[in-house]
Automatic annotation (TrEMBL):
GO terms for cellular component: ribosome. Coiled coil: none annotated. Residues 13-161 form the N-acetyltransferase domain. Keywords: Acyltransferase, Cytoplasm, Ribonucleoprotein, Ribosomal protein, Transferase. This is Ribosomal protein S18-alanine N-acetyltransferase. PANTHER family: ACETYLTRANSFERASE, ACETYLTRANSFERASE YPEA. GO terms for molecular function: N-acetyltransferase activity. It comes from the Bacteria. Belongs to the acetyltransferase family. RimI subfamily. InterPro entries: AcTrfase_RimI/Ard1, Acyl_CoA_acyltransferase, GNAT_dom, YpeA/RimI_acetyltransf.
Length: 161
C-alpha cells in the first residue's frame, strides 16, 4: 500500500479487549476526561476483578488505545463504570463503534440489561447513549464533584439488550 493509499484509506478503528497491561494508558485517558482521575493502580485493581470487562479503541496500527469502556457484570446485568476517549480522538465518531462493540460483547456474555450514570451536563455522552438506545431511568442530585468544587447531577440510564 502506498503512502497516498494509507493517507486516503487509513485502517479502520478496531476495538479489542484490554487488561491490566493497559492500566497506565487507561489512567492517562481517564485523567484527560474527568476531574477525579483514577490512578494506574485503580485500573489494575478494577481490571483484575472477576466480572470486569474492558474494551480499548485503537486507531491505525498503534498498540496504544485512544479510548476505552469498562463494565462490571453481575449475573445478567452490567454497569458501565466508565467510558473515555483521548482528546486527540474526540469528536470524530469513534465512541460509537467502541460502545457498540462493548454492548455486543456484554450481550454475548449473557447480559440482558446495562446500566450507567452520566453527568447531566455531558451532552456528547448523553447523545451517544441515547443513540445506542439507553433510556433515562433516574437522576441523582449532586452526585459528581466538578473540578471547580461544585456538584453536578447524574442521570441514570439503562438499556435492555
Amino acid at each position: 500500500m502506498s503512502i497516498l493509499d494509507r493517507f486516503l484509506h487509513p485502517p479502520a478503528p478496531r476495538v479489542e479487549a484490554v487488561g491490566t497491561e493497559a492500566a497506565a494508558r487507561l489512567s492517562a485517558i481517564h485523567a484527560s476526561a474527568f476531574a477525579r482521575a483514577w490512578s494506574p493502580l485503580d485500573f489494575e485493581r478494577l481490571l483484575g476483578e472477576r466480572g470486569v470487562v474492558a474494551d480499548g479503541l485503537f486507531l491505525g496500527r498503534t498498540a496504544r488505545p485512544v479510548g476505552f469502556v469498562l463494565s462490571r457484570i453481575v449475573l445478567d446485568e452490567a454497569e458501565i463504570i466508565t467510558v473515555a476517549v483521548a482528546p486527540e480522538a474526540r469528536g470524530k465518531g469513534h465512541a460509537r463503534p467502541l460502545l457498540a462493540h462493548h454492548l455486543d460483547a456484554l450481550a454475548r456474555r449473557g447480559v440482558a440489561r446495562v446500566h450507567l450514570e452520566v453527568e447531566e451536563g455531558n451532552a456528547p455522552a448523553i447523545a451517544l447513549y441515547r443513540r445506542a438506545g439507553f433510556q433515562d431511568v433516574g437522576r441523582r442530585e449532586g452526585y459528581y464533584r466538578k473540578a471547580d468544587g461544585t456538584k453536578a447531577a447524574a442521570l441514570t440510564m439503562a438499556l435492555s439488550l
